[in-house]
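Re: the 234-residue chain
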Amino acid sequence: MLKVEHLSVGYDDLQVVWDVSFEVPAGALVAIIGSNGAGKTTTLRAVMNLLPLMGGAITFKDEPIVGTPTHQIVERGLVMIPESRATFASLSVADNLHLGAYTKWARAEKKSAMEGVYEIFPRLAERRTQLAGTLSGGERQMLAIGKALMARPEMLVLDEPSLGLAPMIVEDTFDEIRRIRERGVSVLMVEQHVEMTLELVDYAYVLELGQIVTEGSSRDLMTDSRVREAYLSF
């Protein structure tokens, strides 16, 4: 569904990502893992055309998207949740969700989409009139994911979904991501919680200093000596 080939990205003259290639098949849950500063967020921002490329090609559903305006990428079904979570603190939960359904076809299905979000996140239904700025960190993450789902994505891109969350809330968030995939939405996520991520995903790429150093199924990477030594606690 998403194919990235030989991606090179930087900021002005400073190159951050070198020759990165990866893909996300339809229906899959794929991760890019690595330490802070490895280039994970830069890679995602480039996929969404939030950063210009120095080189490489990106296709989504077999169509090139390099240079495509970000809102048109979203309209094609590829939606990203940034690590900032991109919710509006002064608006209610319900109003934030309504804003997520801004594409033409999403507006037409807003009611059923809202029901689906509340089914995945019952706590949001309980807090639908509450201001987003008064929610807990975990609830804000639920709202960010729910808002993205209102756009009816075929693929969801998650940037550090566990950032700033307590360990128990991280487990809940990962369970929610699993349920979203079970509903037919493909998922690409970047994460620093490597052990929990490998327990969740089908396949992962390890990014170090802007380059893919290894890749494999979650089972293979869990037993890879280099990955175990660098990222795992057992």
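The longest helix spans residues 167-182.
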